[in-house]
Recover the amino acids of this structure.
Protein backbone atom coordinates (compact mmCIF):
# COMPACT_ATOMS: atom_id res chain seq x y z
CA UNK A 1 0.00 0.00 0.00
CA UNK A 2 1.40 3.34 -1.00
CA UNK A 3 2.50 5.67 1.75
CA UNK A 4 0.04 8.31 0.58
CA UNK A 5 -2.85 5.81 0.78
CA UNK A 6 -1.88 4.81 4.32
CA UNK A 7 -1.88 8.43 5.35
CA UNK A 8 -5.35 8.87 3.82
CA UNK A 9 -6.77 5.84 5.65
CA UNK A 10 -5.21 7.02 8.87
CA UNK A 11 -6.78 10.43 8.36
CA UNK A 12 -10.25 8.88 7.88
CA UNK A 13 -9.78 6.66 10.95
CA UNK A 14 -8.82 9.69 12.99
CA UNK A 15 -11.94 11.53 11.86
CA UNK A 16 -14.13 8.56 12.84
CA UNK A 17 -12.53 8.36 16.29
CA UNK A 18 -12.93 12.12 16.73
CA UNK A 19 -16.61 12.00 15.74
CA UNK A 20 -17.21 9.08 18.09
CA UNK A 21 -15.66 10.97 20.99
CA UNK A 22 -17.72 14.06 20.19
CA UNK A 23 -20.98 12.13 20.04
CA UNK A 24 -20.26 10.18 23.22
CA UNK A 25 -19.69 13.42 25.14
CA UNK A 26 -22.96 14.99 23.84
CA UNK A 27 -21.06 17.64 21.90
CA UNK A 28 -22.73 16.70 18.63
CA UNK A 29 -25.68 14.43 19.41
CA UNK A 30 -27.40 15.66 22.53
CA UNK A 31 -30.06 13.51 24.10
CA UNK A 32 -33.28 15.38 24.55
CA UNK A 33 -33.99 15.55 28.25
CA UNK A 34 -37.58 14.80 29.25
CA UNK A 35 -38.96 17.39 31.65
CA UNK A 36 -40.79 15.85 34.58
CA UNK A 37 -43.54 17.86 36.29
CA UNK A 38 -44.07 17.09 40.00
CA UNK A 39 -47.78 17.52 40.81
CA UNK A 40 -49.50 16.73 44.12
CA UNK A 41 -53.16 15.79 44.54
CA UNK A 42 -54.71 16.57 47.93
CA UNK A 43 -58.12 14.90 48.14
CA UNK A 44 -60.93 15.67 50.58
CA UNK A 45 -60.99 12.31 52.36
CA UNK A 46 -58.89 10.13 54.63
CA UNK A 47 -58.95 7.28 52.10
CA UNK A 48 -58.69 6.98 48.34
CA UNK A 49 -61.02 3.96 48.19
CA UNK A 50 -63.66 5.93 46.27
CA UNK A 51 -61.26 7.41 43.69
CA UNK A 52 -60.63 4.33 41.54
CA UNK A 53 -61.60 5.75 38.14
CA UNK A 54 -60.33 9.22 39.05
CA UNK A 55 -56.90 7.71 39.75
CA UNK A 56 -56.96 5.82 36.46
CA UNK A 57 -57.46 9.13 34.65
CA UNK A 58 -54.71 10.75 36.71
CA UNK A 59 -52.28 7.93 35.92
CA UNK A 60 -53.05 8.04 32.20
CA UNK A 61 -52.48 11.81 32.06
CA UNK A 62 -49.30 11.41 34.12
CA UNK A 63 -47.96 9.01 31.47
CA UNK A 64 -49.01 11.31 28.61
CA UNK A 65 -47.56 14.51 30.12
CA UNK A 66 -44.54 13.19 32.07
CA UNK A 67 -45.98 14.03 35.47
CA UNK A 68 -44.71 12.69 38.78
CA UNK A 69 -47.87 12.35 40.90
CA UNK A 70 -48.13 12.38 44.68
CA UNK A 71 -51.58 11.36 45.96
CA UNK A 72 -52.23 12.81 49.43
CA UNK A 73 -55.11 11.89 51.77
CA UNK A 74 -56.24 13.78 54.88
CA UNK A 75 -55.32 12.81 58.42
CA UNK A 76 -58.81 13.71 59.63
CA UNK A 77 -62.10 14.32 57.80
CA UNK A 78 -63.61 17.78 57.47
CA UNK A 79 -60.36 19.52 58.43
CA UNK A 80 -59.80 22.40 56.01
CA UNK A 81 -56.95 23.82 58.10
CA UNK A 82 -54.85 20.66 57.91
CA UNK A 83 -55.76 20.22 54.24
CA UNK A 84 -54.34 23.64 53.39
CA UNK A 85 -51.25 22.86 55.47
CA UNK A 86 -50.78 19.82 53.25
CA UNK A 87 -51.10 22.02 50.15
CA UNK A 88 -48.43 24.40 51.46
CA UNK A 89 -46.18 21.50 52.44
CA UNK A 90 -46.40 19.91 48.99
CA UNK A 91 -45.51 23.22 47.30
CA UNK A 92 -42.58 23.76 49.68
CA UNK A 93 -41.40 20.23 48.87
CA UNK A 94 -41.27 21.03 45.16
CA UNK A 95 -44.74 20.48 43.66
CA UNK A 96 -45.05 22.70 40.58
CA UNK A 97 -48.86 22.47 40.84
CA UNK A 98 -51.42 21.13 43.30
CA UNK A 99 -54.77 19.53 42.47
CA UNK A 100 -57.11 20.16 45.38
CA UNK A 101 -60.46 18.63 46.29
CA UNK A 102 -61.48 21.07 49.04
CA UNK A 103 -63.31 19.69 52.07
CA UNK A 104 -64.70 23.19 52.62
CA UNK A 105 -64.32 25.54 49.63
CA UNK A 106 -65.05 28.67 51.68
CA UNK A 107 -62.43 27.83 54.32
CA UNK A 108 -59.87 26.78 51.70
CA UNK A 109 -60.50 29.98 49.75
CA UNK A 110 -59.91 32.00 52.92
CA UNK A 111 -56.57 30.28 53.43
CA UNK A 112 -55.50 30.86 49.82
CA UNK A 113 -56.49 34.53 50.05
CA UNK A 114 -53.98 35.08 52.83
CA UNK A 115 -51.25 32.65 51.76
CA UNK A 116 -48.72 33.33 49.01
CA UNK A 117 -48.78 29.99 47.20
CA UNK A 118 -45.88 29.70 44.81
CA UNK A 119 -47.54 27.15 42.52
CA UNK A 120 -50.87 27.07 40.65
CA UNK A 121 -53.84 25.20 42.10
CA UNK A 122 -56.35 23.16 40.09
CA UNK A 123 -59.61 22.49 41.95
CA UNK A 124 -61.52 19.23 41.67
CA UNK A 125 -64.76 21.12 42.22
CA UNK A 126 -66.02 24.63 41.61
CA UNK A 127 -63.69 27.41 40.43
CA UNK A 128 -62.68 29.56 43.40
CA UNK A 129 -62.18 33.34 42.98
CA UNK A 130 -58.53 33.21 44.05
CA UNK A 131 -55.55 34.17 41.86
CA UNK A 132 -53.66 30.95 42.55
CA UNK A 133 -56.58 28.81 41.30
CA UNK A 134 -56.13 28.45 37.54
CA UNK A 135 -58.80 25.88 36.63
CA UNK A 136 -61.51 23.66 38.06
CA UNK A 137 -63.07 20.39 36.93
CA UNK A 138 -66.40 19.38 38.42
CA UNK A 139 -69.93 18.13 37.92
CA UNK A 140 -73.13 20.07 38.52
CA UNK A 141 -73.90 18.67 41.98
CA UNK A 142 -77.29 20.36 42.22
CA UNK A 143 -78.32 18.82 38.90
CA UNK A 144 -77.05 15.43 40.09
CA UNK A 145 -79.34 15.66 43.11
CA UNK A 146 -82.27 16.60 40.90
CA UNK A 147 -81.71 13.55 38.69
CA UNK A 148 -81.73 11.28 41.72
CA UNK A 149 -84.94 12.92 42.95
CA UNK A 150 -86.60 12.56 39.56
CA UNK A 151 -85.79 8.85 39.50
CA UNK A 152 -87.24 8.35 42.99
CA UNK A 153 -90.38 10.33 42.13
CA UNK A 154 -90.88 8.34 38.92
CA UNK A 155 -90.54 4.94 40.61
CA UNK A 156 -92.23 5.41 44.01
CA UNK A 157 -95.38 6.84 45.52
CA UNK A 158 -95.01 9.91 47.77
CA UNK A 159 -96.48 7.96 50.69
CA UNK A 160 -93.05 6.34 51.09
CA UNK A 161 -90.65 8.36 53.25
CA UNK A 162 -87.16 9.01 51.87
CA UNK A 163 -84.24 8.52 54.26
CA UNK A 164 -81.28 10.59 53.10
CA UNK A 165 -77.84 9.32 54.15
CA UNK A 166 -74.71 11.47 54.01
CA UNK A 167 -71.17 11.03 55.20
CA UNK A 168 -70.88 14.78 55.78
CA UNK A 169 -73.73 17.13 55.01
CA UNK A 170 -71.49 20.10 55.80
CA UNK A 171 -69.36 19.29 52.76
CA UNK A 172 -70.56 21.88 50.25
CA UNK A 173 -70.82 19.42 47.35
CA UNK A 174 -72.96 17.04 49.40
CA UNK A 175 -75.04 20.05 50.36
CA UNK A 176 -75.57 20.92 46.70
CA UNK A 177 -76.63 17.35 45.88
CA UNK A 178 -79.04 17.50 48.82
CA UNK A 179 -80.58 20.79 47.67
CA UNK A 180 -81.20 19.39 44.19
CA UNK A 181 -82.68 16.18 45.60
CA UNK A 182 -84.84 18.05 48.11
CA UNK A 183 -86.25 20.40 45.48
CA UNK A 184 -87.69 17.50 43.46
CA UNK A 185 -88.89 15.44 46.43
CA UNK A 186 -90.68 18.42 47.99
CA UNK A 187 -92.28 19.27 44.67
CA UNK A 188 -93.65 15.72 44.47
CA UNK A 189 -94.89 15.56 48.06
CA UNK A 190 -92.32 13.18 49.59
CA UNK A 191 -91.47 13.32 53.29
CA UNK A 192 -87.73 13.28 54.04
CA UNK A 193 -85.43 12.60 56.97
CA UNK A 194 -81.69 13.35 56.82
CA UNK A 195 -79.16 11.14 58.63
CA UNK A 196 -75.53 12.22 58.81
CA UNK A 197 -73.00 9.61 59.91
CA UNK A 198 -72.20 10.41 63.54
CA UNK A 199 -71.02 6.94 64.53
CA UNK A 200 -70.10 3.69 62.74
CA UNK A 201 -73.64 2.31 63.18
CA UNK A 202 -75.72 5.42 62.33
CA UNK A 203 -77.04 4.02 59.04
CA UNK A 204 -77.44 0.48 60.33
CA UNK A 205 -79.72 1.65 63.14
CA UNK A 206 -81.94 3.57 60.72
CA UNK A 207 -82.24 0.59 58.37
CA UNK A 208 -82.86 -1.86 61.22
CA UNK A 209 -85.71 0.29 62.53
CA UNK A 210 -87.64 -0.23 59.28
CA UNK A 211 -88.30 -3.85 60.24
CA UNK A 212 -89.98 -2.90 63.53
CA UNK A 213 -93.77 -3.40 63.59
CA UNK A 214 -95.58 -0.35 62.31
CA UNK A 215 -92.50 1.25 60.75
CA UNK A 216 -93.35 0.47 57.12
CA UNK A 217 -91.14 0.60 54.06
CA UNK A 218 -88.90 3.46 52.98
CA UNK A 219 -86.57 4.64 50.22
CA UNK A 220 -82.90 5.33 50.98
CA UNK A 221 -81.05 8.03 49.03
CA UNK A 222 -77.30 8.53 49.60
CA UNK A 223 -75.48 11.75 48.77
CA UNK A 224 -71.95 10.35 48.40
CA UNK A 225 -70.08 7.17 47.51
CA UNK A 226 -69.10 6.39 51.09
CA UNK A 227 -72.67 6.36 52.45
CA UNK A 228 -73.88 4.52 49.32
CA UNK A 229 -71.29 1.79 49.89
CA UNK A 230 -72.17 1.37 53.56
CA UNK A 231 -75.93 1.31 52.94
CA UNK A 232 -75.48 -1.27 50.16
CA UNK A 233 -73.38 -3.50 52.42
CA UNK A 234 -76.03 -3.36 55.16
CA UNK A 235 -79.04 -3.95 52.90
CA UNK A 236 -77.26 -6.56 50.80
CA UNK A 237 -76.14 -8.39 53.93
CA UNK A 238 -79.66 -9.45 54.95
CA UNK A 239 -82.62 -10.47 52.76
CA UNK A 240 -84.92 -9.09 55.47
CA UNK A 241 -83.92 -5.48 54.80
CA UNK A 242 -84.72 -5.85 51.12
CA UNK A 243 -88.39 -6.32 52.02
CA UNK A 244 -88.52 -2.99 53.85
CA UNK A 245 -86.22 -0.80 51.77
CA UNK A 246 -88.18 -0.15 48.58
CA UNK A 247 -85.16 1.25 46.77
CA UNK A 248 -81.56 2.29 47.42
CA UNK A 249 -80.21 5.21 45.39
CA UNK A 250 -76.72 6.65 45.53
CA UNK A 251 -73.66 7.88 43.72
CA UNK A 252 -70.26 6.51 42.75
CA UNK A 253 -68.43 4.30 40.26
CA UNK A 254 -66.23 2.00 42.34
CA UNK A 255 -66.19 -1.69 41.34
CA UNK A 256 -67.87 -2.67 44.62
CA UNK A 257 -70.76 -0.24 44.05
CA UNK A 258 -71.22 -1.40 40.47
CA UNK A 259 -71.19 -4.98 41.76
CA UNK A 260 -73.93 -4.17 44.26
CA UNK A 261 -76.00 -2.63 41.49
CA UNK A 262 -75.46 -5.71 39.33
CA UNK A 263 -76.79 -7.84 42.22
CA UNK A 264 -79.88 -5.64 42.47
CA UNK A 265 -79.04 -4.18 45.88
CA UNK A 266 -78.70 -0.64 44.50
CA UNK A 267 -81.69 0.48 42.42
CA UNK A 268 -80.10 3.51 40.77
CA UNK A 269 -76.98 5.67 40.91
CA UNK A 270 -75.77 9.05 39.72
CA UNK A 271 -72.45 8.68 37.92
CA UNK A 272 -70.05 10.88 36.00
CA UNK A 273 -66.89 10.32 33.99
CA UNK A 274 -64.41 10.29 36.87
CA UNK A 275 -61.64 9.08 34.55
CA UNK A 276 -62.00 12.27 32.51
CA UNK A 277 -62.12 14.34 35.70
CA UNK A 278 -58.78 12.95 36.86
CA UNK A 279 -57.23 13.26 33.41
CA UNK A 280 -58.38 16.85 32.91
CA UNK A 281 -57.15 17.92 36.35
CA UNK A 282 -53.63 16.76 35.49
CA UNK A 283 -53.80 18.20 31.97
CA UNK A 284 -54.83 21.61 33.33
CA UNK A 285 -52.09 21.44 35.95
CA UNK A 286 -49.46 20.93 33.24
CA UNK A 287 -50.91 23.78 31.17
CA UNK A 288 -50.76 26.07 34.21
CA UNK A 289 -47.13 25.09 34.85
CA UNK A 290 -46.06 25.57 31.24
CA UNK A 291 -47.77 28.81 30.37
CA UNK A 292 -49.98 30.00 33.21
CA UNK A 293 -53.25 29.12 31.47
CA UNK A 294 -56.30 31.36 31.76
CA UNK A 295 -58.83 30.55 34.48
CA UNK A 296 -61.30 27.92 33.31
CA UNK A 297 -64.24 25.96 34.73
CA UNK A 298 -64.93 22.57 33.14
CA UNK A 299 -68.28 20.97 34.04
CA UNK A 300 -68.76 17.28 33.30
CA UNK A 301 -72.13 15.69 32.64
CA UNK A 302 -73.86 13.43 35.16
CA UNK A 303 -76.00 10.39 34.34
CA UNK A 304 -78.63 8.38 36.19
CA UNK A 305 -78.09 4.65 35.63
CA UNK A 306 -79.75 1.40 36.65
CA UNK A 307 -78.67 -2.23 36.36
CA UNK A 308 -79.65 -2.51 32.69
CA UNK A 309 -77.25 0.34 31.84
CA UNK A 310 -74.14 -1.43 33.16
CA UNK A 311 -73.55 -3.23 29.86
CA UNK A 312 -74.42 -0.31 27.59
CA UNK A 313 -71.45 0.77 25.45
CA UNK A 314 -71.96 4.41 26.39
CA UNK A 315 -71.66 3.68 30.10
CA UNK A 316 -69.09 0.89 29.93
CA UNK A 317 -66.49 3.44 28.81
CA UNK A 318 -67.35 5.64 31.81
CA UNK A 319 -67.71 2.91 34.43
CA UNK A 320 -64.87 0.60 33.36
CA UNK A 321 -62.19 2.82 31.75
CA UNK A 322 -59.16 1.00 30.30
CA UNK A 323 -60.12 -2.31 31.93
Amino acid sequence: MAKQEKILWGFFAGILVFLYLLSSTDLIIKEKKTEIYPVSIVIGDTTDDYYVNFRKGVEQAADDYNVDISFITLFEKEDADSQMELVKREIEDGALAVILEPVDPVECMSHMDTAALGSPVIVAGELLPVDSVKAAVSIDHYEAGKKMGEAIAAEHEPELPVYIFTDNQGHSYNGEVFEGLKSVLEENGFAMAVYERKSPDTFRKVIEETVYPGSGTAVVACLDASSTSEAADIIGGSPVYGRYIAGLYGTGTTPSLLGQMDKGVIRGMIVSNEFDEGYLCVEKAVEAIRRGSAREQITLETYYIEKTDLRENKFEKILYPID
In short: The longest strand covers residues 133-139. The radius of gyration is 27 Å. The mean pLDDT is 89.
